[in-house]
Design goal:
Elements (H helix, E strand, L loop, with lengths): L1 H15 L15 E15 L11 E8 L3 E9 L14 E19 L5 E7 L30 E2 L7 E7 L1 H8 L9 H7 L3 E7 L7 E5 L7 E10 L2 E10 L6 E8 L6 H7 L7 E5 L4 E8 L9 E9 L18 E5 L9 E8 L2 E5 L1 H8 L9 E5 L8 E5 L8 E7 L2
Length: 413
């Protein structure tokens, strides 16, 4: 009986044990410690207008952002001929039926319901493949819009990525189709004869606030099409020729920033560094970022790091400035020791959780604790794709009620 009783007790004890915790009596988990590292020397970084030559994303449109100011954007581009010694007409051009500029819009920022008037004019000077084109560059045009009356409006009820078509004056098609053969011998000859187009958009009413749209120049859906008819062996034949933006073309974006009405936060911060203790700005377009240092790395020496997380709250007073039309960035990127977007300096992307951004920094912090990596002299926060987005975020400063911090959980050695 005693043997049966002993076995019953052992069976009951075994049934109650959690198999995932098997062996903890012999190898208990090590005690842990949590350190909160403080941030120091937090400051704003204002970069000059970025290089936009052959950028993968460009902008057109106009909008006023209370945090950044008024953005006005336009796109200057050449078109590719599509070969050498091209011949558009074999015998005789009868008519140009239509000229269509199709643009692929990938995203929007601002009041998409406000109609913008789209203007497309001829460039009067060729773009140079090796020349720098910063965002504040100025392009020469003939000043005459080619978009047909009544077909120049750009607005959305609900934005969705896709193509918008704009009918242009058929005189542009006739100009291109009747170029002399010497202008069609190469891409360079064609682009010298036809420098390209300048595309811009602004509200019909100056008092209205519009939107800035992101355009993909190299998308196969961004194209200049000419529909025409020619006489071939005595018969009328409909024809079409497509001009795309490829690597043999040069393009650039003009993104200018101004101040209309109250002084935007960006200019306040640039003029008064005392504000940096309360709030900070992270913005794309003309990039604005945050630079800071971290104190207390020596407390982690030779410790096995279990988790490390940088937590940066939003500025509570600025939350009302975000909306579906003016959203904050999808994510923010953290870089070490440089203000450039260098892959080897990246510490990863931070995502929003409620009104704060969190970066998982376990791996780089572990390498610092083990002496495999030197602590960074500086860390930088930028919006992901900072040159190709005009989104922005207002962060809390060190003097805010909820300042940023780096929290590290490590095991006792």
């Amino acid at each position: 009986m005693r043997l049966y009783a002993f076995l019953a007790v052992v069976a009951g004890f075994t049934a109650c044990r959690n198999p995932r915790r098997m062996g903890e009596e012999l190898f208990p988990p090590p005690p842990t410690r949590t350190d909160t590292l403080t941030l120091l020397q937090v400051s704003q970084r204002f970069l000059p207008p970025p290089e936009t030559r052959n950028a993968p994303f460009v902008f057109i449109g106009q909008t006023t952002d209370t945090f950044v100011g008024t953005w006005s954007a336009a796109w200057a581009t050449q078109f590719s001929l599509g070969g050498q010694n091209v011949r558009f007409i074999t015998e005789q051009l009868l008519a140009v039926d239509s000229v269509v500029l199709e643009l692929f819009f990938a995203s929007s920022y601002g009041n998409i319901g406000t109609p913008l008037r789209v203007r497309v004019s001829r460039l009067t000077q060729p773009l140079l493949p090796g020349a720098p084109y910063p965002a504040d560059a100025i392009f020469s045009t003939d000043g005459q819009s080619l978009v047909l009356a009544g077909r120049d409006s750009l607005s959305y009820t609900t934005f969705a990525p896709g193509v918008r078509r704009f009918l242009l004056d058929t005189a542009l098609g006739r100009q291109i189709l009747t170029l002399p053969p010497s202008s069609l011998t190469s891409e360079a000859a064609f682009q010298a004869a036809f420098p390209g187009l300048y595309v811009e958009a602004e509200p019909f009413q100056a008092s209205e606030n519009g939107a800035v749209y992101t355009l993909l120049p190299r998308s196969p859906l961004t194209v200049l099409r000419i529909y025409y008819r020619e006489l071939i062996q005595g018969r009328e034949a409909p024809q079409r020729y497509d001009f795309f933006v490829t690597d043999s073309a040069t393009w650039a974006c003009r993104l200018s920033r101004g101040v209309v009405g109250p002084v935007p936060l960006r200019d306040q911060l640039e003029a008064d560094p005392q504000l940096w203790g309360q709030r900070l700005l992270v913005a794309g377009g003309w990039p604005v970022g945050i630079r800071f240092q971290v104190a207390g790395w020596e407390r982690l020496a030779r410790r096995p790091v279990l988790s490390a997380q940088l937590v940066w709250p939003s500025d509570s007073a600025s939350l009302s400035g975000f909306s579906p039309l003016y959203p904050r960035p999808g994510s923010l990127v953290l870089y070490a020791d440089t203000s450039e977007e260098v892959a080897t300096a990246s510490w990863g992307f931070g995502d929003f959780f409620g009104n704060e951004v969190r970066w998982n920094l376990t791996q780089p912090v572990q390498e610092i604790a083990l002496g495999r990596r030197s602590p960074p002299a500086w860390l930088y926060v930028w919006p992901a794709g900072r040159t190709y987005t005009v989104q922005r975020w207002v962060a809390a400063g060190l003097n805010s009620a909820t300042p940023p911090y780096l929290v590290v959980t490590s095991a006792e050695p």
